[in-house]
Structure to design on (289 residues):
């Protein structure tokens, strides 16, 4: 086992003292977990190439008010940026599927990119999981987690290309409409069985809530497909003086015929869905009223 897990208190003194010990704490790709104890257990997973700087940002941002108490930093001399993004994605999905913690991560899109020796790295991720489980951060095994409904229906997914395109189309249409209080649109997602319509609906609800609650100092992966929505201009809900509606005022109906996304629950009777993109999900064109 070539990786190590260092645990330090989530405070400025602990972070600075820890960072003085070795340069890899200030200039090396790492994955870290912030967690709390007690009745309302919360947890955040991140990755960075500058651990000390990133922890200082957390301490001066929204994370300091979440009751987080400790940091666990996963360090491996073999890690690169791609491996860390991949491990971060795996840990977020596993933690959410385990259900022991309330996950503070946003849903700007998890990474499932290809990179050199990815399968070898992923084998080592299971060792990281077991090390964190030994410290009490997981209550179940990976097979138990991945066979649970909480994991299968999690909003934390690495989306297929057509699923991501469908969600991007929906968000763009909703945010355009929300800038105009009188506009209402109906969007219908259609796809064959198994193409991920339910995944699109669940992912979308979490993403809309994250866009609504986003603060300028929150964390968004800049390479994420949805990063552009986490900026001041596309978030009309943060400017109530403009009369714009809340992006969370959207309902999702999941059925055998598809997923219907309806701004402010307008009627979808008579909608004429279009075929999906390729073998995946498609989005009905947005009518303007």
């Amino acid at each position: 086992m070539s990786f190590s897990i260092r645990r330090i208190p989530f405070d400025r003194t602990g972070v600075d003292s820890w960072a003085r010990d070795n340069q890899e704490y200030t200039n090396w790709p790492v994955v870290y977990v912030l967690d709390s104890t007690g009745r309302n257990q919360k947890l955040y997973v991140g990755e960075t190439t500058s651990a000390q700087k990133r922890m200082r940002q957390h301490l001066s941002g929204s994370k300091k008010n979440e009751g987080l108490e400790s940091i666990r930093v996963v360090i491996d001399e073999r890690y690169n940026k791609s491996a860390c993004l991949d491990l971060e994605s795996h840990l977020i999905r596993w933690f959410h599927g385990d259900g022991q913690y309330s996950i503070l991560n946003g849903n700007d899109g998890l990474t499932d990119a290809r990179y050199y020796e990815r399968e070898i790295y992923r084998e080592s991720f299971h060792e990281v999981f077991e090390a964190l489980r030994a410290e009490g951060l997981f209550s179940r095994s990976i097979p138990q987690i991945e066979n649970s409904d909480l994991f299968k229906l999690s909003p934390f997914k690495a989306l297929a290309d057509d699923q991501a395109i469908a969600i991007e189309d929906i968000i763009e249409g909703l945010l355009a409409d929300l800038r105009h209080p009188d506009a209402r649109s109906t969007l219908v997602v259609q796809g064959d069985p198994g193409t991920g319509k339910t995944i699109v609906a669940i992912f979308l609800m979490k993403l809309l809530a994250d866009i609504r609650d986003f603060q300028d100092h929150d964390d968004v992966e800049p390479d994420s497909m949805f990063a552009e929505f986490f900026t001041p201009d596309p978030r009309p809900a943060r400017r109530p003086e403009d009369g714009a509606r809340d992006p969370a005022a959207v309902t999702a109906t999941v059925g055998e015929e598809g997923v219907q996304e309806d701004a402010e629950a307008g009627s979808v009777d008579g909608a004429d869905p279009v075929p999906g993109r390729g073998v995946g999900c498609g989005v009905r064109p947005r009518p303007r009223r």
Notes: Strands lie at 4-9, 30-35, 42-48, 70-75, 102-103, 186-190, 250-255, 258-263, 282-283. The helical segments are 12-19, 51-60, 81-98, 118-134, 142-146, 149-152, 161-178, 197-213. The chain has a mean pLDDT of 77. The two ends are 61 Å apart (CA to CA).
